[in-house]
Amino acid sequence: xxxxxxxxxxxxxxxxxxxxxxxxxxxxxxxxxxxxxxxxxxxxxxxxxxxxxxxxxxxxxxxxxxxxxxxxxxxxxxxxxxxxxxxxx
Length: 89
Hints:
Strand content: over 45%
Number of domains: 1
């Protein structure tokens, strides 16, 4: 069974690449979409940097994203919230 180790406070995701956050150099981020609509989540190399990937997070869904420490995350809507986490077995 996999468990989630909480390493930071949950906060609303920034909504532009220029304000994207690394969630305090997190290698894993737990994302939850609290909105009733699906929203795009994007991972960039640095703030305003090259896009590494993106995906649509469905309404009321939870996903854990693994990324490089320096990579940053932003979402299309502040209803997407994130927290730095660790993954345990």
